[in-house]
Write a structure and sequence with these properties.
By secondary structure, this protein is mainly alpha-helical. The chain contains seven helices and no strands. The protein is rod-shaped and about 150 Å long. Residues 1-39 are annotated as: Disordered. Residues 1-26 have a biased composition (Basic and acidic residues).
Length: 235
């Protein structure tokens, strides 16, 4: 009986040992599973963080691209505007050049008559006391002395001083073009004639092409955006 009992106890001990081993294996397996799950969760968290960082960087990159494109389009739009502006100026300059050349080529006699009439009206209006007579054949020195005369300078200021209105200039222009409906080019020509005649900056009183060209262009631009007949609407 004692031997049988020992065998039974030994068998129970073996079974218990096996059971303990199984439990240990299960515990180890469970522990490994938990560890693996935790590692996976940690890696997934890190991966999500990296994705978030990349997403933010991408958003910033595309925002910068959009801003750069907007600036580029703005610059491009400005350049297009400048090109159109320059094209209009070139067209206007070409028109002015052609107009001036045609005026001189086809109407030399008219220019001479118009210039003489303008000077006659100007001297008559101011009178000999205010505007001393001057001969077109006078020497450059005599012309400079004449223009430097305070009375001549005063006549120029009355016509072209920006602080004064243009009523006086309009009145004299109406006398030059009495009963006529002049073009803006003719108005600019006569106004330029007055300026060249009285302005001390010009060392001549002759209305030749080299002297008159820029002044006519200047007064044409002033008339461009306004009704040139406004000169004749003032009292």
């Amino acid at each position: 009986m004692s031997g049988f009992r020992d065998k039974v106890q030994k068998m129970m001990s073996v079974d218990e040992e096996r059971s303990n081993k199984c439990r240990n294996v299960e515990d180890i397996s469970s522990s490994m599973s938990d560890t693996s799950k935790k590692n996976n969760d940690d890696q997934l968290k890190i991966l999500n963080e990296k994705v978030d960082i990349l997403t933010v960087k991408n958003e910033k990159f595309y925002d910068q691209v959009i801003q750069d494109n907007a600036k580029f389009l703005e610059c491009l739009e400005y350049l297009c505007f400048r090109i159109k502006f320059l094209e209009k100026n070139i067209e206007y300059d070409n028109f002015m050049n052609n107009s001036f050349i045609k005026l001189l080529a086809k109407h030399q006699s008219l220019c001479g008559v118009l210039s003489s009439k303008a000077k006659e009206v100007l001297f008559t209006y101011f009178g000999a006391d205010a505007l001393l007579p001057i001969n077109t054949s006078s020497s450059p020195q005599k012309i400079t002395e004449w223009k430097a005369n305070p009375s001549v300078a005063e006549c120029y200021n009355k016509l072209f001083n920006k602080e004064r209105n243009s009523d006086l200039l309009a009145k004299i222009l109406r006398k030059v073009f009495a009963g006529e409906n002049p073009s803006s080019l003719h108005i600019a020509f006569v106004t330029a004639t007055f300026a060249v005649l009285l302005d001390l900056k010009f060392k001549t009183i002759c209305t030749n092409e080299n002297v008159m060209r820029n002044k006519i262009d200047y007064f044409m631009k002033k008339l461009k955006d306004t009704d040139h007949l406004d000169y004749f609407k003032k009292v």
